[in-house]
Each structure stands twice: as structure tokens, then as C-alpha cells.
Amino acid sequence: xxxxxxxxxxxxxxxxxxxxxxxxxxxxxxxxxxxxxxxxxxxxxxxxxxxxxxxxxxxxxxxxxxxxxxxxxxxxx
Length: 77
Known about the structure:
Blueprint: H1 51-76
């Protein structure tokens, strides 16, 4: 993606101080007015949980459920 400079000539832009700052009383441009203002989201995983952790969680759930079932059977006898 090509980046377009929203302010090609900062020395001609009204409302900016010498170093590019905004003087008191002026409103700076909002984020949505600048292209590519948001963070790059290339590090987000493309999928949900991996298979390994899900298998471990399901195995623990089955083990606990079997324990409760066994405890209930012992109480009934």
C-alpha cells in the first residue's frame, strides 16, 4: 500500500508552529483524517486456538466429568 502524505508542504499549512506543533487554541487533525493512522495488525494470529491446548482442555473436562460420575455412582450404592 502506498502512503500518501496528508500534508506535503508543512511550512504552508495554517495553524502549525515552526516545529510542526499545534499552538494553543488550534484543533489538531483527527486520526481518521490521516491515511494509515492505525497500527499495523500483521502480528494477529489468523486462527483461533491451536489444536493442542483444546485437546488438553477437553481431556481435563472429560476426566473431571468421569470423576463426578464415579462419585455419584459410589453415593448411590
